[in-house]
Write a structure and sequence with these properties.
Structural class: alpha/beta
Distance between the termini: 104 Å
Strand order of the largest sheet: 5-6-7-3-8-9
Oligomer: single chain
Largest sheet: 6 strands, mixed
Helix content: 55-70%
GO molecular function, one term: ABC-type xenobiotic transporter activity
Pfam family, one: ABC_tran
Subcellular location: Vacuole membrane
Radius of gyration: 39 Å
Main location: membrane
Strand content: 5-15%
Biased composition (Basic and acidic residues): 780-794
Number of strands: 23
């Protein structure tokens, strides 16, 4: 229609011209131009529909511009009609114009809606309205109003969140980033070689993308360049928007200048109203452009976080052992949380690096127009401030590096402590380790305190800078020439330009500091991502030439490129379908051999080929075995899976799964074992000594060689072997079930890989009979302890972290203020009040100065006085800022100290039930992200809230003082403002809570992945776990992204309120023309121009504080967890020599793990004399470990009591009790630090005593061989010691304590029989007069016990001497028979 009408106008004009009628050229050119543009618009409409584009921003802007420009033509046409005397041609043009204008209006209105989706596009559930929003809805973020309303009516929950748009999903972002980063690494590794086929391979896989190819030259790839290539184009769009916003910023001062001139001359009133409307329209346009700019920046930051988290997770999958030593779990978690957050924060204001100087140049240019060369004085002040800011930035950089190191160290230690918290409690070491954490935290707080004071000085310079610039400029201007008069126009237009200068002057140092922080994070991240990776070609997985599925030829392996080889000159070949046992003493390299075959070690030389592997091992052995069997692989590697099960279960597992009659009999099996009873049934035995293969052969062959292995067997297993062999000659007619309860489907490690397992269900294999019937298992004591008593399906072990709903409790804010100190809070508020009073006073003083009467010669009197008072008020303002900043810095560090210390103590004193039901990642998140918020973010929010709050108040006071009539609209505007921000805060607060809740699973999943990365690689489940990581990250971003949009939604609407204030202030200035002077007009409007930003910042700071103070709420939650009994109870402390005898009495004792669970120990009544050696046995799940936990009061009594030497242990403090008991746990727990610290964390013993303990624990020779001796650095988790060596360290701890009561909880399950015998001999010798509890799966270790306690289902089944129990032929007899001892 529009196209036809334009051609009608053109045709009419041509016809008139042809007939000699006078026609204006504009009547010919305009229809032609409009017709062409309409044709182009029609083409784009058709093209967009063809491509499935449902809304067009280009067309919407086109119709808006058409509407605005034709509004002037509309006015002209109306005047023509009013004037009359129209020709026929003019009437026709008017008619076609009105019809065309109506069509343009219709097109503009239709741009508010979007076309229906294409029919071929699939419908998605929970799709974000953003995907179907119109261009105008995008500009005003109106599509988000639905969630704002939903959040206002009811607290938001997970199901209310929308799915991410495809461009924001972590999978797509990670693939793009990894492809770019890999290309960058490839380019720098070989400068003369372009990215070749290896890089092309990165495009197709998620795993290989991070595996570097060996043999290339080392270089320094730039992570910054990779990020620019991935995120630069979209961020450049934001930069363009920033240019437009900056230009619009300088329009308002020019309009203010025109408005001040209007009030002092005789211009018509309509000009004043037009200027007021232009001020309003300019402000609206600037608001829209600025909020779109911020949206782009925050979105880029969010995407960058996705890339960082994804890249770190993928890198952790392939990191070499040497690189892993340099990056602890705590450090890597900080990369994913703190460092990624810094990149996000920087993106918001990074453009200030160029935008700040650009604004400064423009401001100085316009100032020159009003004040001339005097602005050079102000420029000089700015140049003088640069070195000060540079010094502050450099010092901040140094502090930042130091603080991050301390933070990493603290999180690393906390991670280790939480992983070993049960052992720490049993040793009564928790307070010692709490002090270690506190010592690191104190150093961190010292750095934080210094940084806070440095920031206070920075705040002083930032506030002083704009004032000093304006003061210097005004002073030079008025004092350089007596004819220089500071008029209202010059004063307040200059002041508005100085206010524009304030932002770049304030933000540039802050951005520099943020860049410094981000550069530290960039360096840390680059170092991690560029770290050495495992060589994917170390193990050849193609079929071997001779048919062997495992072949190792003269191979040497090391755990690190700079470390000594662990395995040397290994030669090994394993035929298909054979069962090979790997044996050797502790530390000979058995587990290392398994790792080498998996490709987890660095291959120095040699050849390794493994056709297809599956790994079984770890603490949940039976689950691991079942999982391995289910995979149907060619080669199975079993890393001592029978060590943590009793003899009965171990025998059944071997008979039915691993052995020659088991379901894997046709598979190739490599079994690392310390048990010799199974060796006669294996096809081949590999003996390792000192990292080398000592002997290889069948059981009988090795006996005939009469070597060291034969001697070992004769000494430790002669009787055991004969009995076992005799039994094996008779195949069991009905083998007992391996598992006695259905395999639980909620094992977390299996859930993460469920998709891979489901895919493999379609396989068929020779081991199908393994999967027939019900796969059952008997649970361990720990399973019974924690899970087995939960009968209700909805009674989950791990509690779900839930989000609080509703308003942030006042008690949370008061708690933080109380931690800061009420006196300090009052001082801060008073200082800000005085600061703003000085600021308002200086502005009013300037207004009065600008209207001082002129002398006949054109000069003013009292200039020096005016200038001096103005300067004094400004300095007062700066000093108040300095005082408030120092007070806030001091108070915030005090609050951080108290809140962290309180939570730390409560966590260390929490019962084990808390740790059993709380994922460690959730706790670590409290100590990392939430403490970071309390340390750095919340103080900044408080400062911003107070500053903007007082500034808004002072602005309203000034405007009402200038134009009292403005008070009429203040109340309605404030009501509108209140409702807008209340709508927002309810939604924003809940979104922040949901984001916090969904963040913890990311870190928990990462920690679990790191712990089992070898198993994940062995099963080939990298992609599955990476997908899980992406899902968890997307879930978190689904809460974070709405938070971004909610801020923009709010800012745009608040700025609309602020722009209305500008409009009314300008209109009232026009209305009051002649009644108020131009100085008052300048004062009123210049302040109103600031209110837009201030109102926005006020609500943002209030909401940011309210959402971030959730961290205080979360820390307070963990500062009020249920506590164990007191460590020391005054008045009920045992004597210092207690226990003298070590007698123990259980009197009708029962216990459970938590309220609501069944009893695990039931009505036990036994008396154990001092010095007795008691063995505790029972089928798995009988309650053996539960009794030891009860003795240490890890779990408390449900009924009855336990007495030691006649004193009820329930009446004494836990420190007094546990410090008098010793335990050698099944899982040896070591901590990063010196060997001395691991033996004696309290530093209670002399070196001679430490060496004596090491000698008796058979570690002296090893420690003596170390260069650092007792100061030898133990890595995280004791990974640089073998499992057996870690167990011997635990023995040394017990020897040092010399307790009268010793508990051995399956302490020798992970060591070879020779080491086991050494440990038992040491215990018999050194603890001869002690009461000893021994829980053992190897019954031969307790056959010399005084008495044996047999438990069954938590009750005492048998309790007598071993001989009597064997004669009774009860439960103990059957267990001994299974073990070949009866």
């Amino acid at each position: 229609m529009l196209w036809i009408l334009t051609w009608v106008d053109l045709g009419r004009g041509i016809w008139e011209w042809y007939n000699g009628t006078a026609v204006l050229y504009v009547d010919l050119v305009t229809p032609l131009i409009v017709g062409v543009t309409m044709a182009i618009a029609a083409f784009f409409i058709y093209y967009d529909r063809l491509k499935g584009v449902r809304t067009s921003g280009l067309l919407t802007i086109y119709w808006i511009l058409f509407l605005l420009t034709w509004a002037l033509v509309f006015r002209t046409k109306v005047e023509q009609i009013q004037n009359g005397g129209l020709t026929t041609g003019e009437v026709m043009r008017i008619v076609t114009f009105f019809i065309s204008y109506a069509c343009v209006i219709a097109h503009f209105l239709m741009s508010f809606f979007v076309d229906l989706p294409p029919a071929y596009e699939p419908q998605k559930l929970n799709t974000s309205p953003q995907e179907s929003a119109s261009f105008i809805s995008h500009m005003f973020f109106e599509w988000f109003s639905k969630m704002i309303m939903l959040g206002y009516k009811n607290p938001l929950v997970d199901n209310d969140l929308w799915d991410l748009i495809p461009d924001d999903k972590s999978g797509r972002i990670s693939r793009r980033f990894n492809k770019t980063w890999s290309a960058e690494k490839a380019k720098y590794k070989n400068e003369n070689e372009e990215v070749d086929d290896d890089t092309a391979r990165f495009e197709n896989t998620d795993v290989d993308v991070l595996i570097e190819q060996p043999g290339r030259k080392k270089g320094k790839p730039s992570l910054f360049k990779a990020m620019v290539r991935v995120f630069g184009p979209y961020y450049f769009l934001g930069s363009l928007l920033k240019v437009v916003s900056d230009l619009l910023t300088f329009v308002s001062p020019q309009l203010l200048s025109a408005l001040i001139l209007f009030t002092s001359n005789n211009a018509p009133v309509w000009q004043g109203y037009m200027l007021a409307v232009l001020l309003f329209v300019t402000a609206i346009l600037q608001s829209i452009v600025l909020q779109q700019y911020f949206h782009v920046c925050f979105t880029v930051g969010m995407r960058m976080r996705s890339a960082v988290v994804g890249a770190v997770y993928r890198k952790a999958m392939v990191l070499s052992n040497s690189a892993r030593k340099e990056s602890t779990v705590g450090e890597v978690v900080n990369l994913m949380s703190v460092d990624a957050q810094r990149f996000m924060d920087l993106m918001t204001y990074l453009n200030t690096v160029w935008s700040g100087p650009f604004q400064i140049i423009l401001a100085m240019y316009f100032l020159w127009q009003y004040l001339g060369a005097a602005v050079l004085a102000g420029l000089g002040v700015m140049l003088l401030l640069i070195p000060i800011n540079a010094l502050i930035a450099r010092k901040t950089h140094q502090l930042q590096v130091r603080q991050m190191k301390l933070k990493d160290e603290r999180i690393k230690l906390m991670n280790e402590i939480l992983n070993g918290i049960k052992v720490l409690k049993m040793y009564a070491w928790e307070m010692s380790f709490k002090d270690k954490v506190k010592a690191i935290r104190d150093k961190e707080l010292d750095v934080l305190r210094t940084a806070a004071y440095l920031n206070a000085v920075g705040s002083f310079t930032w506030v002083s800078a704009p004032f000093l610039v304006s003061l210097t400029t005004f002073a030079v201007y008025v004092l350089s020439d007596s004819s220089h008069i500071l008029t209202a126009q010059k004063a307040f237009v200059s002041l508005s330009l100085f206010n524009i200068l304030r932002f770049p002057l304030v933000m540039l140092p802050a951005v520099i500091a943020a860049i410094v922080q981000a550069s530290v994070s960039m360096t840390r991240l680059s170092k991690f991502l560029a770290g050495d990776e495992l060589d994917p070609d170390a193990v050849d997985h193609s079929p071997t030439a001779h048919g062997e599925v495992v072949e190792v030829d003269n191979a040497t392996f090391t755990w690190g490129k700079k470390d000594e080889p662990i395995l040397k000159n290994i030669n090994l070949s394993v035929p298909s379908g054979s069962l090979v046992a790997v044996v050797g003493q502790v530390g000979t390299g058995k587990s290392s051999l398994i790792s080498a075959l998996l490709g987890d070690m660095d291959k120095v030389e040699g050849y390794v080929s493994v056709k297809g592997i599956n790994l079984s091992g770890g603490q949940k052995q039976r689950v691991s075995i079942a999982r391995a069997v289910y995979q149907d692989a060619d080669v199975y590697l079993f890393d001592d899976p029978l060590s943590a099960v009793d003899a009965h279960v171990g025998k059944n597992i071997f008979d039915n799964v691993l052995g020659p009659r088991g379901c894997l009999k046709n598979k190739t099996r490599l079994l690392v074992t310390h048990g010799v009873s199974f060796l006669p049934q294996v096809d081949r035995i590999v003996v390792l000594v000192g990292g080398r293969v000592s002997e290889i052969g069948h059981y009988d062959e090795l006996l005939e060689k009469n070597g060291a292995f034969a001697e070992f067997l004769r000494n430790y297993a002669n009787h055991e072997d004969s009995e076992s062999t005799d039994e094996e000659d008779v195949p069991p007619s009905s083998p007992p079930p391996i598992f006695e309860e259905e395999l639980e489907p909620d094992v977390d490690a299996d859930e993460t890989a469920s998709s891979d397992f489901k895919r493999q269900r379609t396989r068929t294999s020779s081991s199908d009979h393994c999967k027939s019937g019900k796969l059952r298992r008997r649970k361990t004591d720990r399973d019974i302890d924690i899970k087995a008593q939960q009968k209700k399906k909805d009674d989950k072990l791990i509690t779900t972290e839930t989000a609080e709903t509703g308003n942030i409790k006042l008690s949370v804010a008061l708690s933080y203020m109380r931690s800061v100190g009420y006196l300090i809070c009052s001082t801060i508020a008073l200082a800000y009040c005085l600061q703003n009073a000085a600021q308002v006073g200086s502005s009013i003083w300037l207004s009065q100065w600008s209207t001082d009467p002129l002398n006949p010669d054109g000069t003013q009197n009292g200039t020096a006085t005016r200038l001096g008072v103005y300067g004094a008020l400004g300095m007062t303002q700066a000093l108040m800022v300095l005082g408030s900043s120092f007070s806030m810095s001091y108070g915030s560090v005090v609050a951080s100290t108290l809140l962290h210390s309180k939570m730390l103590v409560r966590i260390f004193r929490a019962p084990m039930s808390f740790f059993d039901t709380t994922p460690l990642g959730r706790i670590v998140n409290r100590f990392s992200k939430d403490i970071y918020l309390i340390d750095e973010v919340i103080p900044r929010c408080f400062t911003g809230l107070l500053m903007t709050g007082f500034q808004c108040l002072s602005t309203f006071v000034v405007i009402v003082y200038s134009t009292p009539i403005f008070a009429v609209v203040v109340v309605p505007l404030l009501i509108l403002y209140y409702f807008v921000q209340r709508f927002y805060i309810r939604t924003s607060r809940q979104l922040k809570r949901l984001e916090s809740i969904s963040r913890s699973p990311i870190y928990s999943h990462f920690s679990e992945t790191i712990a089992g990365v070898s198993t994940i690689r062995a099963y080939g489940l990298q992609k599955s776990f990476m997908k899980q990581n992406e899902i968890k990250l997307d879930t978190n971003q689904m809460a974070y992204y709405p938070n971004i949009v909610s801020n923009r939604w709010l800012a745009l609407r608040l700025e609309l309120v602020g722009n209305l204030i500008v409009l009314f202030a300008a209109i009232f200035a026009v209305v009051e023309k002649g009644k108020i002077n131009d100085g008052i007009v300048g004062l009123s409007i210049s302040y109103s121009l600031q209110i837009t930003m201030m109102l926005n910042w006020l609500v943002r700071q209030a909401s940011e504080l309210e959402t971030n103070i959730v961290a205080v709420e979360r820390v307070e939650e963990y500062s009020s967890v249920v506590q164990e009994a007191e460590l020391v109870i005054d008045g009920s402390r045992p004597p210092s020599h207690w226990p003298a005898e070590g007698s123990i009495k259980f009197e009708d004792y029962s216990t459970r793990y938590r309220e609501g669970l069944d009893l695990v120990v039931k009505n036990i009544t036994i008396h154990i004399n001092g010095g007795e050696k008691v063995g505790i046995v029972g089928r798995t799940g009988a309650g053996k470990s539960s009794m030891t936990l009860a003795l240490f009061r890890i779990i408390e009594s449900a009924s009855g009591r336990i007495s030691i030497d006649g004193l009820p242990i329930s009446n004494m403090g836990l420190q007094d009790l546990r410090s008098k008991l010793s335990i050698i746990p099944q899982d040896p727990v070591l901590f990063s630090g010196s060997l001395r610290m691991n033996l004696d964390p309290f530093e209670e013993y002399r070196d001679s005593e430490l060496w004596d303990a090491l000698e008796h624990s058979h570690l002296k020779d090893y420690v003596t061989s170390l260069s650092e001796k007792l100061e030898h650095e133990v890595t995280e988790g004791g990974e640089n010691l073998s499992v057996g060596q870690r167990q011997l360290v635990c023995l040394a701890r017990a020897l040092l304590r010399k307790s009268k009561i010793l508990v051995l909880d399956e302490a020798t399950a992970a060591v070879d029989l020779e080491t086991d015998d050494l440990i038992q001999a040491t215990i018999r010798e050194q603890f001869s007069d002690c009461t000893t509890f021994t829980i053992a799966h190897r019954l031969n270790t307790i056959m010399d016990s005084t008495r044996v306690l047999v438990l069954d289902a938590g009750k005492v089944a048998e309790f007598d001497t071993p001989d009597n129990l064997l004669q009774a032929k009860g439960i103990f007899f059957s267990m001994a028979k299974d073990a070949g001892l009866a």
